[in-house]
Amino acid sequence: MADVTADTGALSDRYHFLLRRLHSLSGIIPVGVFICIHLTVNASILAGPRAFQFAVDQIHNINNLGILKTVEVVFILIPIAFHAIVGIIIWLTSQPNVTRYRYGGNIRYTLQRWTGILAILFILLHLRHIHWIIPGGAEFDPHDAATSTVRAMVGAWAGIMYTIGVLCAVFHLANGVWTFLITWGVTIGPAAQRRSGYVCAIIGIILGLFGIGSLITLKTMDASAISPAAVEQGHTTALYHRADLPT
Amino acid sequence: MSKEIVFKIRRQDGPSTSAYWEEFRMPHSPGHNVVSALMYLREHPVNSRGEKVQPIVWDSNCMEEVCGACSMIINDVPRQACAALIDELEQPIVLEPLSKFPLIRDLMVDRQKMFDALLKVKAWVPMDGSWDIHRHAPLIAPDDQSIRYLFSRCMTCGCCMEACPQFHENSAFIGPAPIGQVDLHNSHPTGKYAREGRLHAVMGDGGITDCGNAQNCVQVCPKDIPLTDAIARIGRQTTAQWLRDLFVK
Questions:
Q1: Which residue of A has its CA nearest to B117?
Q2: What number is the ipTM of this complex?
């Protein structure tokens, strides 16, 4: 029997609390915030190629300072990787028992773990598919956002992968906000947790509609029918002119 | 109501032997609970095939759901056998030992892990010192009393640990019940003095951060202890403690 009263000096023990709390925090800031922005920008395609181009330009204008890739790596990719690695460790130490205990909370606990794992796989496929960090995939052209995205989304595989991936990520985020509020001691009693549950469900439904709505729009849009004039208009309504963008 | 009581019991002759199921039938009489029925079977250790077998081993003590000894899984629910009335159970009544604690024999397990955890989190009010801690017992507001009373009913039965998907032999998690006791003792006017030590004890590996918020604990607790309230409160207290450690010390 280990001496339970001794203070252990093990590194993992000393940094355990910090690591787990950073995992919880990183899921909201910056990863959760990023997902909200990402899905909102995506959803602008619902208003047409012009609006989508305008939204994309708002993001890519950061590159006027030449820091877009640095921002992506430091504030998006590294936090996601950290959240994923600690998440895998957490997943490995769970023993879901939902077949015996079919309570709502337990089902969400089990889903939280599996949607996390699926979201990691999805993000890797998504980066392979369209992101510069893994070269060789489809080209996303920030100067002609709608056309290049519609072209990239052709095929049943893309539709299935993005539907499952986006829904997993959205559930994981919405439920993650709910557990975040418990973890940090914001919502304590069952009534407070029920109320925060409603709010998180609404957040999840809105983000899910954004994601699926933009997917349907992209899948049903004809790339050759996107008028260059609309894209050009999107650029000119952006805060900066397209000439400011690097080619 | 059936004339017979039928049990399906998961048995195991020792910690390292393999488990097997055995069926038992006994005459029905009103007012039986699972422990009193097991007592009958101990006197008549004959299985449903008519074979004389070793009497079933289990643990029990108080017979009024306050000691926590007779925890077992009854029809898929971890609970106290003494408070499980036969007439309220679906038959055949399936009995299994708790699966998260080392098995001794049949339905008897070793719940030592829980007591070790109580020691680790310093779940007591320190009274010995070189000075008088309190000349008079401190006053506690009635509202606080009623909340704390719920936590004082914890009998370390292990049902919450059994249902917790984060508590198992490959995890360091101390489980919900000891966190409930940290909350109880931290809220006590005198127990507060040792608050920091308890919080540090649950801030390491296997502590509060290893809770996964499945909230099965609060669903199965036979004493209706608001364990998830305690977990969230200790989450809040450890957050504050971590900041104090970082900026004040």
A1: A4
A2: 0.92
